[in-house]
Design brief:
- The protein has 348 residues and is mostly beta strands.
- It has a single domain, classed as TolB, C-terminal domain (Neuraminidase, 6 Propeller), CATH 2.120.10.
- Helices cover 13% and strands 34% of the residues.
- 45% of the residues are buried.
Length: 348
């Protein structure tokens, strides 16, 4: 029943794509509204995940780890899964290979948390709590990725535009903490997409992540865009993030932080309301478009061994645009810090 409903909602979106000639360099469609989020419990919509044909969402508020199933016809809540775990600042929702929901309790606007956490809501059995520590001091992070191997990857939110990529140094302890390793970095080209709460800086800050159902594409999003990366046959998400991504503009979202993929390769995008109507939007053909791109000639090997625990920040990928003058950078960072502070969470 739900599969037919999702198909019906998306049918009108894909008609135009089917009529267009196929092209190896074809771009995905522009975002189109699925429904408007008016549910108060999702006023701070921060994460999306798709399990089978079910769309699930989470908010970064509340005192219990909770995932809400959405009706894609009107964005109402039709089911709930929760656990008696109290997150500090939950920011992203991901799906594990066993169908478990992973909540990234990794928000830290003031960068003062000694540990961050992953909260796991399995289909059966007790919930799990895994605490984590960074090797290089506290970070704010809003993107959580889970690959086919079930190993979490965290991507931080940095106003400098160069985000850190981290994964556990070993098996996750319960409750831990388990140390993280910095295994890479990621940055984005300049974007002219309009939207978000902090102006141009929002085009550089990572606010969410997702892995496609078939595991072949990984997405990071900012307040203004999604960036899609081809995953190598090894399934290494870290290696994927070191290649050149495809840009998918997500304009005019009040505070876009949520992203996921439907099984057919459609990209889902969601935004906090920020006093306006939050929307759940769909971009048909996103995975197909990303896979049509030729691999970057300068892409690194498929497997990237982790560096030592303490590593300096890596330089931006070679496709990162030229750095602004020193004076301009200082002005941008000062403005960004002020803007991000204004948008700090209730617990942040």
């Amino acid at each position: 029943m739900r599969a037919r409903l999702v198909a019906a909602v998306l049918a009108s979106m894909v008609v135009g794509l089917l009529a267009a000639p196929a092209s190896a360099s074809a771009s995905p469609a522009v975002p189109q509204d699925l429904c408007t989020v008016t549910e108060p419990r999702l006023a701070e919509l921060s994460g999306l995940a798709v399990r089978g044909d079910e769309i699930w969402a989470m908010s970064d508020g509340g005192t219990r780890a909770t995932a809400y199933r959405l009706d894609p016809a009107d964005c109402t809540i039709i089911d709930t899964e929760r656990a008696d775990l109290d997150p500090f600042d939950a920011e992203d929702l991901a799906l594990g290979p066993d169908g478990a929901f992973w909540i990234g309790d990794t928000g830290d606007n003031n960068r003062r948390r000694e540990t961050v956490a992953l909260l796991v809501l399995p289909p059966r059995g007790d919930p799990r709590l895994h605490r984590l520590t960074y090797p290089d001091g506290p970070h704010d992070a809003e993107a959580l990725l889970i690959g086919a191997d079930g190993v979490p990857v965290i991507v931080t939110k940095e106003v400098t535009g160069i985000a850190g990529v981290y994964r556990p140094a070993g098996p996750l302890a319960e409750p831990g903490p388990t140390p993280l390793l910095r295994v890479g970095s990621v940055g984005f080209a300049r974007s002219d997409t309009v939207g978000g709460p902090v102006g141009a800086v929002g085009a550089l800050t990572v606010t969410g992540g997702a892995v496609s159902a078939d595991g072949r594409v990984v997405a990071l999003r900012t307040y203004t865009d999604a960036w899609l990366y081809r995953v190598p046959p090894s399934g290494d998400l870290v290696a994927a993030l070191q290649t050149t991504p495809r840009q998918v503009p997500l304009p005019d979202e009040p505070q876009g932080e949520a992203i996921a993929f439907l099984p057919d390769g459609t990209l889902l995008s969601g935004s906090e309301t920020r006093g306006r109507s939050g929307r759940l939007r769909a971009v048909p053909g996103a995975v197909e478009a990303a896979l049509a791109d030729a691999p970057s000639e300068s892409a690194p090997p498929e497997s990237v061994p982790p560096p030592p625990v303490a590593t300096p920040p890596e330089p931006a990928p070679e496709w990162q645009p030229a750095v602004l003058g020193v004076g301009a950078v200082v002005l941008v960072l000062v403005a960004a810090a002020g803007a991000m502070t204004l948008h700090a969470r209730r617990r942040g």
